[in-house]
Amino acid sequence: MIDLPTTAMKPGTLTASVLSEGEPITRALTPAIHVAMTYIRDADNGYSSGNVYGRADNTSVRQAESLISELEGAAESLVFGSGTAAATALFLSLEPTHIVAPQLMYWALQSWLRQSPRFGHQITFVDMSDLEAVKAAIRPGKTGLVWIETPSNPLWTITDIAAVAQSAHVAGALVAADSTAATPILTQPLAYGADIVLHSATKYLNGHSDVSAGVLAIAKPNELWSRVRKMREQNGSVLGPFEAWLLARGLRTLDIRVKAQSRSAEVLARRLAKHSAISGVLYPGLVDSPGHRVAASQMMGGFGGMLSIRLKGGPRVAISTAANVSIWRRATSFGGIESLIEHRSSMEGEGSLCPADLLRLSVGLEDPDDLFNDLERAIARSA
Ligand SMILES: *Cc1c(COP(=O)(O)O)cnc(C)c1O
């Protein structure tokens, strides 16, 4: 049933080669940035270039989209000014419907969904790792969308994409997968039956912590997709040419970054799991992690660069550990080349389901030995 993309090239080849075909007029090796927001109309009153006005899209956005579509095995992609702009464009393009979403997911999107009744939607939050609970939550003929996130923030729980897609499709619902933490290097959700993929491209796709961007990719464009495209244009939420160019540039090293970050995260997870001050390491790559079996079947070549640790000493020791690191940077967000540490429940604030003794770790490209030693020293100082 799994229909993996039949693209002849591997992701590393795609990312390195797709945007270096040479620009047609100058023969520049790397893509140009066209900043024009308006384009010349032909004398016969047409627009033979296809370019009209920059609120619809721009050449840099289209370049990033074509590469992302190839990586996801998608028919089309749409790049937005942020991950939340992309996701909410999808939610707002649905006719009022019932949405099933995870109890634990990226908190800013969850807060948006909580107020989605204002936009006509009904919403049910479930434990997405519990297939029976998911089936019970889906209302045949009524549920329009099942939203999943795997691995999901900030506990890195795993959702079985193929199983959820099957249950959703039987009931007539679409499945959209927030695959921000997995990236198309490790998982291509469309191949497992998801209809739409979301990425906060602010994270790994750009990878350098210097662009806000988001993307939706679709397996088979439909009427909903046309509405999403229209909404991007009408709401003015497309990414600008400079940022789109930076995103495309970041994408070109995605494969090697994600693989290196996954390797380091796995090394750290194993070593941290043995640490006497740590009560739990949340990482789907650990064989005793609850989602490991499913993760191993749908994540290829690694389990991602994100993990969380829980400190036996509780919230005080967690916050103090974050205060005592010197290589890890205390900051929110993830997926950049620099390693970040975050006391997540402080960030999520009131109503957060994130345990207060938890630190979220985004593993960058530093040497894993240095990262481990830095964290170990910080924990020792915080005891
Ligand atoms: C950051 C993030 C988002 C939102 O993306 P922005 O680019 O910050 O708007 C959505 N989903 C996940 C999993 C994220 O980590």
Automatic annotation (TrEMBL):
<dbReference type="InterPro" id="IPR000277">
    <property type="entry name" value="Cys/Met-Metab_PyrdxlP-dep_enz"/>
</dbReference>
<dbReference type="Pfam" id="PF01053">
    <property type="entry name" value="Cys_Met_Meta_PP"/>
</dbReference>
<dbReference type="GO" id="GO:0008483">
    <property type="term" value="F:transaminase activity"/>
</dbReference>
<keyword id="KW-0808">Transferase</keyword>
<dbReference type="InterPro" id="IPR054542">
    <property type="entry name" value="Cys_met_metab_PP"/>
</dbReference>
<protein>
    <submittedName>
        <fullName>Aminotransferase class V-fold PLP-dependent enzyme</fullName>
    </submittedName>
</protein>
<dbReference type="InterPro" id="IPR015422">
    <property type="entry name" value="PyrdxlP-dep_Trfase_small"/>
</dbReference>
<comment type="similarity">
    <text>Belongs to the trans-sulfuration enzymes family.</text>
</comment>
<dbReference type="InterPro" id="IPR015424">
    <property type="entry name" value="PyrdxlP-dep_Trfase"/>
</dbReference>
<keyword id="KW-0663">Pyridoxal phosphate</keyword>
<keyword id="KW-0032">Aminotransferase</keyword>
<dbReference type="InterPro" id="IPR015421">
    <property type="entry name" value="PyrdxlP-dep_Trfase_major"/>
</dbReference>
